[in-house]
Specification:
eight-stranded antiparallel sheet, 0% helix, five-stranded antiparallel sheet, mainly beta, Immunoglobulin-like
């Protein structure tokens, strides 16, 4: 098994985030699955109006996201929320959803102003030739909404589907 740590410490445009916004993701890879552990500040955003589990449009709520890019611009968008909601989307080319609503094993716990989540993602969902990634965190409502990225994005507004802004996966 190999692993790596990802830290989200900047706003989407590369400016430093506040200390109370940083997120740590730990990825472990085996032949059967990716395990993703999340450690984030809980910002108190309300949960989606949906049952815990796979939830469409989760990006409209407090969320941590991981995008994994493979061959021929196939990528997996994984979203996880502090209330136990998640979303898995398989895409081919920027924003072209090929499959959605795939079930994942995910649980989240909120304690002492933090939330921690853990997901197991079956290897069959990971794009062939996975080689790059970016990770994001979103919280807040309306004008106070904040978008963070592990690796900065160009442009006048956050667009997480800029595949050229992904960083190489480095399993150390």
């Amino acid at each position: 098994m190999t692993h790596m740590e990802i830290r989200i410490e900047r706003l989407w445009n590369g400016e430093p985030a506040r200390a109370d916004e940083t997120v740590r993701l730990t990825l472990e890879r085996s032949t059967e699955e990716f395990t993703i552990a999340i450690d984030a500040i809980f910002h108190g955003d309300p949960p989606p109006d949906a049952a815990i589990g796979s939830t469409d449009r989760l990006w409209e709520h407090e969320v941590v996201e991981l995008f994994l890019l493979g061959d021929d611009d196939h990528y997996l968008e994984l979203e996880f929320g502090p209330h136990g909601h998640y979303l898995a989307l398989a895409l081919h080319g920027a924003r072209h959803v090929a499959a959605s609503g795939m079930p994942l094993d995910f649980a989240a716990v909120r304690t002492n102003g933090h939330w921690r989540g853990r997901s197991r993602v079956p290897a069959r969902l990971i794009p062939a030739g996975v080689r790059a990634f970016n990770a994001y965190a979103i919280h807040g409502r309306a004008a106070s909404r904040r978008h963070l990225a592990a690796y900065p994005l160009p442009g006048a507004a956050p667009d997480f589907h800029q595949l050229q802004s992904f960083a190489p996966l480095d399993w150390g």
